[in-house]
Amino acid sequence: MQMGPRGRAVFEKVVQMSDWKAPRAPGRALGISISERSGSLGAGVAEISLERSSGKIRVHKTWLAVDGGLVVQPGMARANVESGIVYGLSSVLHERVTLKDGVVQQSNFHDYHVMRMSDMPEVMEVAFIERDAPPSGLGEIGNPWVAAAIANAFQRLTGKRLKHMPFTPARVQEALKA
Q: Most buried of the four, 31, 32, 153, 162, by CB within 10 Å?
């Protein structure tokens, strides 16, 4: 992806939003990534911690700067993008379908884990870059950046790379041993 001025604008905005250079609490790290979807650009930052004994990643804060052209309904756009972030977090950290003898093992929410309120970040900020341009798609820009940002924060925190989603505790512990 060629960044250009739009990419630079979303990166600069999310760096400002997250106060990127500020010291973090011990045991926490930031990761950043960028995504493009339906003509929109988004740069996101995730602040995570890791419970090494269990392998559980906790996302404490997220920030996302979006260039989606003219935002016609800001409240609706923000809610849409925030829901994309939640779906991204859920798919990256929790959701997993397993098969046994060709049959899906999960039958409902008691054994198919999705994001719960207790898993939500303490902070989830979204900012739109104001630009005089036609509106572009915002429906999915909140989701794609999440995995790379969490993986990048994990690498900063541990020196190890996560390469297979979802980042379940077992997969995290495998990465830590590698």
A: 153
Domain ranges of the chain: 4-171
Query: pLDDT at position 139, please?
Result: 83
1 falls in which pLDDT band (50, 70, 90)? low
C-alpha dihedral sign at 160, 166, 168, 170: negative
**pTM over 0.90, yes/no:** yes
CATH 3.30.365.10 describes domain 4-171: yes
Q: Tell how strand 56-67 and strand 103-104 pair up.
A: unpaired
Inter-axis angle of helices 145-158 and 74-93, nearest 10: 50
Q: Is the pLDDT of residue 16 over 60?
A: yes
DSSP run (H or E) holding 60: strand 56-67
The size of the chain, in residues, is 178
Residue with tokens 């609706």: 76
Integer Cα distance of 178 and 174 in angstroms: 6
Q: Which of 69, 89, 86, 6 is nearest to 43 (CA)?
A: 6
**What mean pLDDT is predicted for residues 75-94?**
95
User: Residue 166: is the preceding peptide bond cis (ω within 30°)?
Assistant: yes
